Amino acid sequence: MTGQEHLIHRYLRSSKRFPHVWCPGCGIGILLGALVRAIDGNGYGKDDIVLISGIGCSGRLPVYLDFNTLHTTHGRALTFATGIKLAKPKLKVIAIMGDGDASSIGGNHLIHSARRNIDITAIIINNQIYGMTGGQSSPTTPFGLHTASSPFGHLEHPFDIAKLVEAAGAPFVARSTVYHARILERLIGTAIAKSGFSVIEVMSPCVTHFGKWSGIGSAVQMMQWQKDNTVSIEKARNMTPTELQGKVVTGVLIDAHKPTFHEEHARISREMKD
Amino acid sequence: MKSNRVLLQGSEACVRAAIAAGCRFYAGYPITPATEIMELMSRAMPKAGGVFIQMEDEIASLGAAVGASLGGVKAMTATSGPGFSLMQEHISFAAMAEVPCVIVNVMRGGLSTGLPTRPAQGDVMQARWGAHGDHPILVVAPSSTYEFFDLTVKAFNLAERYRSPVIVLADEVVAHTRESVVLPSAHEVEVEDRVRPSVPPEWYSPYRDPGTGIPPMAAFGEGYRFHVTGLMHDINGYPTERQDETEELMARLFNKISKDFHLLQWYDSYFEEGAEVTVIAYGSVARSALRAVRTAREKGMPVGLLKLKMLWPFMRRTVSQYLQSSRSVIVAEMNMGQLSREVKRVNQGTCPIHTLNRVDGRMITPEQILTAIEEELR
Amino acid sequence: MRYELRLAGSGGQGLVLAGIVLAEAALLDGHVVVHSQNYGPEARGGNSVSEVIISGEEIDYPRATGLDMLVALNQRACNDNLPDMKEDGLVIVDSSAVKKVLWGRVLRLPLQRQADHAFKDSRVVNMLALGVLTAFCPLIQAESMGQALTSRMPAGSLDHNLEAFRTGLSMGHDLASRTHFHEVEDATDV
């Protein structure tokens, strides 16, 4: 057994029935690996972490891992996460969501969590489509794309999730892809260590549905697409808008500081006691 | 001597009760006529060492409350009809995942946005059946400031005892009316806490029936790492579709409350002696009914009042007895007839049941009930 | 014994608070008391009703069944609430805002004018009304009202409000000493 495998096995639940639910070629497994390595790298204990998910393919992630895990309702992971964080401020709370989960049905919770700066790390797995329900268009589906629910081409325009949460006030926003697994791992580590609402948008292939509808094709081709179409923020700064068209900008996009909700609430409680 | 009688609004009594019962987390969203509870909580929670948060909507409010409860803290939210509709999703989750929490619904007039500042009792069925999927639920209904205190404490105790969401179904009159009351002091209040696991973490199965039907509940972050989901789950909390496991879970969810039906007959009976006609009422209507029944008794009419304090599970045993002993029954409620359907279901045709309904945002008056009584006895 | 009072006017006139103070005073005097309020959706304007029931025993029905006293600060409040009066109930109205009162036992006082001119603060109309009401309510001691005001009003404006209350009280006492309803069929004006 390699060191990598050994590490993963330490964090997987031995009591959980496998195999997992994800399709071959799905990016969520790579994200899971990066997440585990990031947590391990930061030196947190298993009891320190709460992993919370909503509904969709991403929603099934926490159950495989040996942390405090909670699989909630569609779009609402952040609301439960808020309650847990405030009840137990010492816990590291990580919410795993999909693009439809976080930015459609959960869009309100996403922007308000960012605004109130609740100390949670939100990992948004963006595969640009509803995977579990069979390939319907999501808020990040490209304009014009044919999907199971946009048979004549998608009539709507996609969200830029990173920009959305930036505008809503998130003090830490980063983006990466599952192709860049090592960079992703580092970004997750930084985000978890960061105090306040941190968001990582993870571009991830849904081979089964997005691969089919977009015509990009197989798992390998989708990985290749990620490699070819991403530009680091450092490079992007020196590129023209025309050059950046169709590119996914990755890296740490926002890194700021502002007081978190639970710190401010604790201050009020202390003042009331005095 | 300083009297310990105080002038308190129903909402204030509810908040004091929550704190006395150990509530240390409140999440809510402003809505008339439940806003007072939220505003009072915004001061009371930090003072009591708890947390108050105003969420972005009612779905989020109950989500946060359920989250806090999983973190080991007693949690509550309060709302009115429109917000209560939004909460149904998480009531279902809390019932499925067996997370104790208290939801106060101060019922207001009308359907949709209706009559925000006026009373009604239109959410009786929503409280029972509003959340999707078959689920057990506990619902209490206070009729006065004192009962709002008493039943809020008891709601927390029920939530902890049964690991269930519990709904306090108040109405605008009960929440807004101020009354001179004597409330029990903190040490007089009986408080129940959820049973925590006594086994070491490696032996802990979060949904294993210990024989009582109610599994001990660990809090997140205290060494018991476990999984919670709204999916059908096995005794470890892991999703399952196995027929033997889903069947067992559903049976346990219902049995844990139904086995205690005999303990959940919460009511007050007035002028039971020789009552030929029984008025059945709950919430603020029970007060109009009491006035009407008193007046009727003064006039020599053989009439009694059964005030229900527990609406769900429906008190079949108790209500059946009154149906058997009465010549006829009047069910008075501020809706088009909701709890009366249950009374009729339990009745099985043995006793004539008359309904008295009002849905114009006004209380049912004692005169209306008295008239109905007189008609019954004519 | 059941004594029912209602204060009616428009939102923003502080009637809910006045009713709470009245209820608190009744509590201090050892009575069983219920206070309820009724208001429209508007924060300002619209109808506002504040009601107090005072009793020696448990109050079952928490709403008025026959008003012993009504304070009406505008014409609509007066018209709307007169049907709820007890036969020998007393109606107190603001004389500038309420012109027509189809009721026998009526007291007309320039409450709003007094607030505007003597106090240069239209908001104290509720305190003036409370003062007048106290002079005519057999169950409430003026001292208890003072105590209730102290406990329910913000400290910053307490003196100002207490002064308005006392002014209302002496207006009431003054009127009470000169009023004999059995002699005057219609209105009593000051």
How helical, in percent, are the residues of chain C?
Answer: 25-40%
| Main beta-sheet annotation of chain A | 8 strands, mixed
Given the helix and strand composition of chain A, which structural class is it?
alpha/beta
Average pLDDT level of chain C: 91
Number of individual domains of chain C: 1
Largest sheet of chain C: 7 strands, mixed
Report the CATH superfamily of chain C: Pyruvate-ferredoxin oxidoreductase, PFOR, domain III
- What distance lies between the first and last C-alpha atoms of chain A, to the nearest angstrom? 57 Å
**Number of strand elements of chain A:** 8
The CATH architecture term of chain A is 3-Layer(aba) Sandwich
What is the CATH homologous superfamily assignment of chain A?
Answer: Thiamin diphosphate (ThDP)-binding fold, Pyr/PP domains
Strand content of chain C: 25-35%
What does the model show?
The complex is a heterotrimer of chains A (274), B (378) and C (190). Chain A contains twelve helices and eight strands. Chain A has 274 residues and is α/β, with parallel strands linked by helices. In chain A, strands 2-1-3-4-6-5-8-7 form an eight-stranded mixed β-sheet, with helices on both faces. Chain A starts with a helix and ends with a helix. The mean pLDDT of chain A is 96. Chain B has two domains: 5-188, Thiamin diphosphate (ThDP)-binding fold, Pyr/PP domains (Rossmann fold, 3-Layer(aba) Sandwich), CATH 3.40.50; 268-377, Rossmann fold (3-Layer(aba) Sandwich). In chain B, the strands form three sheets. In chain B, strands 2, 3, 4, 5, 6, 7, 8 and 14 form an eight-stranded mixed β-sheet that branches. In chain B, β5 and β6 form a beta hairpin. In chain B, α1 (10-20) runs parallel beside α2 (35-47), α1 (10-20) runs parallel beside α6 (145-162) and α9 packs across α12 (366-377). Chain B starts with a strand and ends with a helix. The mean pLDDT of chain B is 97. In chain C, β2 and β3 form a beta hairpin. Chain C is built from six helices and seven strands; from the N terminus they run βαβββαββααααβ. With 190 residues, chain C is α/β, with parallel strands linked by helices. In chain C, α4 packs across α6 (158-178) and α5 runs antiparallel to α6. Chains A and B meet through β2, α3, α5 and α12 of A and β3, α3, α4 and β10 of B.
